[in-house]
Predict the 3D structure of the following.
Amino acid sequence: MGYDRFVAESGRVNDVLNAVNLLTWDARTQMPAGGTASRGQQIATLTSLARGIVTGPAMRDALAAAWDEVAAEPEDSRRRRAVAAMQEGLAALDRIPEPLLHEAALLKTEAQAAWVAARARSDFPAFRPYLERSFALQRRVADALGWAEHPYDALVAQYEPGMTLGRLRPLFAALRSRLVPLIARAQARPAPRRDFLERDYPVDRQKAFARTLTELVGFDYGRGRLDEAVHPFEISFTRGDVRITSRYRPNFLPAGLFAALHEAGHGLYEQGIDPELGRSVLATDIVNLYAVGGASFGLHESQSRLLENRVGRSRRFWDLHFPLLRDAFPQQLADVSAEEFWRAVNLVRPGLIRVEADELTYDLHIMLRVELEAAVIAGDLTVADLPAAWAGRMRDDLGLEVPDDARGVLQDIHWSTGYVGSFPTYTLGNVMASQLFAVAERDPAVAGGLEAGDYTPLRLWLNQAVHRHGRSRLPEEILRAATGGGLDPAPYLAYLEAKHGS
Ligand code: ZN
């Protein structure tokens, strides 16, 4: 009975947070500019309502009774995991005082607006006071949550349970030592032709092709939609309704196409959650008060990177499907072969902008951000010194001079919105994607499917290994069960070496 009450209370939290997701999706795809201020208040009210249910007396009472009921069950039973997940989430929320959360919510709106204006004028000094407040506030969050080795650990664990700076650093060092020479070799080769990527590609036909491509890889349009957004993202309102977005540039074909594949990878994850986890705490991120089925930010990113890069940027994929693309754009691609297209979308060239980076340089962009944000959180680097530190790292790592702060320290939204500690999950996603893909490819059905352009066996494999578990297991438990080992950069490096090494 206690467990039933706990399930009912958890369902209410999930309902409210799914409503927040709907308001968020709308704000980023449909809402006119005039809606901004009131939408912010609506989301804040609903989020605090969800927090109130989690931390309220009814939940605490139900949780205590539910514990008694499930205590004798095996440690990994879903009922026990559900109770434990809520208990841990509640403990984290209890550690962060309400006034601190309120201050963070207010600052987020203010700082984000200041960031948009400062980036447009490349004016770091205008943004600096907001960034100082934002980092100071995140340090207070870290201290409230608690940490042992480094304050950054408390922040990164919000997005990737169990992850610490001490675990990230050797992983980064292993990647860096192989990426740097690979980038040098790739840069020494002549660039393939890319002229055809920048021809005139009507957006309505790009949209139609993105739909074709996402259907091909198994995104279920009976339980999902594809829309346009300035910054592509995926968000779900339960497994039965998963929204993905892309952004199309009329004179640059790859942007919209690969964004759609990337978000479809996130979408397959959410659509693949076991139905019995619906509306439960195992499809809810209590710490971040966010309705989501995926086990962590990093594991989520592994699914999008797997589809975008391991499948979508492979030679095999374009050998099979380039004719479809040429059917969509017969004039634009009349003089282009599948191989030329594949080479063009895999060009390695260091650039200033993270979101435009190729596979080899992407992780260096992440390492730069992680080292800098960890140093600021620890008090080893001041916000005032960030632009110079950024420029120095870009020079050392990628050999590039940063011409202005808009293309340097001001380029990402993360720090203005309080997402300090989330950057590592992009690289963790790359690493886990290759670990999972290496095992999946050994399955004859998956290998045969990839050979034939049938992605159902791969989707079913990922569903079995990753998607269906929702948040009933920790990301590293899922990884271990699927691959037989923990986090390991070797398969990722072997893939990059094979693809870009010669
Ligand atoms: Zn993503």
